[in-house]
Every structure is written in C-alpha cells, then in structure tokens.
Amino acid sequence: MTKKIAVLHTSFVFVQVEPIINDLIAELIPDAEVLHFVDSDVLATVVREQGISAKSEMRMVRLAEAAEAADADIIFSACSSLGPALDAASAAVAIPVVKIDDAMARRAAAEGRRIGVLATVPTTLQPTTDLIRAQADALDREIQVVQRLCEGAFDVLMGGDRARHDEIVVTQAVDLAAEVDLIVLAQASMNRLAPVLKDRTGLEVLSSPRMGVEYLAERVAALAS
Hints:
single chain, alpha/beta, Rossmann fold, 2 domains, 55% helix, globular, Aspartate/glutamate racemase family protein, Asp/Glu/hydantoin_racemase, Iso_Racemase_Enz_sf
C-alpha cells in the first residue's frame, strides 16, 4: 500500500530555492505520496527571536497535527533549527516523526572526535550540536564540537545570490578545518557544497538530505512490513 509522507517546511527554501528533498524522495521512495506542510515564517521568527518560543513550538505542533489529520503515515521535518520543537510535535501525534538530521548526527558521533558544525542560520548551531552530543552519549563516545556560523550566507541565498552564499560557506569551512577532523553541514541548503568543501578541506563533510531521506526510506519500509 502506498504510504503518505508529510514533509514539514519552515521556509520556502526547499520549495522554491533548493528542491533537493523532493528529488531525493522521488528517487529513494518513488511509490510514496508526498504532502507538503509549510509555515513560511516560523524559521524567520526563530532567527529574529534568537530561539524557539512557546508560540513557535506550537506552530510546529500544529503543522504535525495537520499532517496527521491529512492521514499521513509518517512526518519528515526538513528544518534543523526547529529540531527541539519537533520533539514536542512528535509527542503530540501518533505517527512517527523523522528529523532530516537524525542519521547525519548518528554518523558524525560515530566517526568524529573533534566535530565542526558549520551553519548559515545561527539558531541551527545549538540544536545540531545537541543532537550530535546526544548520539555520542548513546554510543558512549567522547567528542568535542566546534561551532562556526557563516554570517549572512542564508540571507543572500534567500535573495537568490548562490555564488555569494557559496563563497561565504567555503571560506568559513576552510578556516574551520584547521580545528576539527570532520565537518557537519547544519543546513540542508548547504548540501550541494559538500563535495567542494571535502575537496577544499581534505576532511569528511557530512550533509543531511540524502542520509536523512535514506533513513526516512527505512522507516517507511518498516511501516509497510
């Protein structure tokens, strides 16, 4: 039976600018029916408020509840900044909730000792760091995390200037590489730069979209069994 996947978006970046999640789901879970639920302002609100307020958390809960009401079988969150709010959303619905960076965080915790977290949105640094540390605790591994913000990169990407976005990210990644042994890209919107950054830094560079959707495919397959 075809499974319904509800994808939760917190900006239009994966709808208008970087449609990679749609492409990966079409490739890896071709029989799925995909529903999109978008709150195009909640990420901007979290960035403006420099954290997840109770109201922002409730907005994510409402998105998840809308997905459940639409008879989705599983929810996939495309946003790393709102990760903690997704924990609340998961508790509010009866269907599984998968975060885009779950699988990436597990791999980083398993392979890295000094892990660099590179972000283009400041509010993603701590949720990504916390997720990696939680995975390291589960694996009983000692790690260190070095955070690095690519100041202004996300804003110029949303303005359509990919070249400037890429320049900022590459510069920060090369600088960060001197301090770490593995780099995690906290924003899925940075995904297409992973091969370039690996080449420029000589380090393993992890990005969430493919790993996240591969894990989603596993969860969907488990539902069907």
